[in-house]
Amino acid sequence: RRQRQMCIRDSERLEKEIPELEARKAELEQSLCSGTLPIDELTHRSVEVSELIGRIDELSMRWLELSEIGE
Q1: Is the C-alpha dihedral spanning 5, 62, 46, 28 positive or negative?
Q2: pLDDT digit string (tens) for 16-55?
Q3: Within a 13 Å sphere around the CA of 4, how many CA atoms are in the beta-carbon half?
Q4: Dist. CA 41–CA 44, nearest whole Å
Q5: Rounded CA gap, 44 and 52, in Å?
Q6: CA–CA separation, 51 vs 8, rounded Å?
Q7: How many CA atoms lie within 13 A of 32 on its CB side?
Q8: Within a 10 A sphere around the Cβ of 27, how many other Cβ atoms?
Q9: What residues have CB less than 8 Å from 18, skipping those under 6 apart?
Q10: Residue 37: which of 29, 50, 53 has the closest Cα?
């Protein structure tokens, strides 16, 4: 029972965090397409997008694991 409650809390946290990260990624991708950023900023934002993709994938897999446990 305690483990189930922890899974539910983790799942709820992920359901909030994943969309926030996806929104940030979309914001960065839009700025990358603007054509107005200097090269160093393009590089920095590209790296951040890459890191966000990895984090989103990681959290999505964790959410999936938790949803299977909760079934």
Answers
A1: negative
A2: 999 999 999 999 999 999 999 999 999 999 999 999 999 9
A3: 3
A4: 5
A5: 12
A6: 26
A7: 15
A8: 12
A9: 56, 59, 60, 63
A10: 29
